[in-house]
Specification:
Layout: E1 2-4, E2 8-9, E3 16-24, E4 28-32, E5 37-40, E6 46-50, E7 55-59, E8 64-72, E9 76-85, E10 89-91, E11 104-112, E12 114-120, E13 126-132, E14 135-139, E15 143-149, E16 154-163
Antiparallel strand pairs: 1-8, 2-7, 3-6, 3-8, 4-5, 4-7, 9-16, 10-15, 11-14, 11-16, 12-13, 12-15
């Protein structure tokens, strides 16, 4: 997570794929390789882009907080999604199947609310982990099974980093 207080260019990261997501604030405008400006002003809106692109940022109206995931494409790919849960259980979606990858790292960031993650470790042991707002779990795990929310507005960002 980053707090951005002023306009400016992003650092270049050759070979990296990036995903940036607005968490708080009125938004930002991004321009890649001197092309058209795009606006990211909806909370939890994801914007994917190459880390080797020249990227300029202008804040829409003051300070923002964002979540920025960067993965080296030479060694991994990633899939991301944001889920909103209302006192419900989310079984692990097909979106995150990893049959072609022997290793992966899961990252879960609770944006708001509280939830419990159920998963299996590489040794097959079942585990439960409670997370509340602004907490992150990064874990090399075998199988994430479900997410259970405990309130009416749990929002969770989940990324699966697939090792090549």
């Amino acid at each position: 997570m980053a707090t951005v207080t002023q306009d400016g260019p992003f650092s270049l990261f050759e070979h990296y794929q990036r995903c940036i997501m607005l968490l708080e604030g009125t938004g930002m405008r991004l321009r890649f390789n001197q092309q058209e400006w795009i606006t990211v002003n909806t909370p939890l809106q994801r914007q994917l882009f190459s880390g080797q692109w020249q990227t300029d940022c202008k804040l829409v109206n003051g300070t923002i907080r964002d979540f920025n995931l960067m993965v080296d494409q030479r060694v991994a790919d990633f899939k991301v999604d944001v889920f909103t849960l209302n006192n419900q259980n989310l079984s692990w979606p097909e979106f995150f199947t990893s049959e072609d990858h022997l290793q992966y790292i899961d990252l879960a960031y609770v944006i708001s609310g509280e939830c419990e993650l159920e998963y299996k470790t590489p040794t097959g042991e079942s585990k439960m982990k409670k997370l509340s707002a602004e907490h992150t779990l990064v874990n090399k795990i075998f199988q994430l099974k479900s997410v259970q929310s405990f309130d009416s507005n749990t929002k969770i960002f989940i990324a699966r980093i697939l090792i090549k």
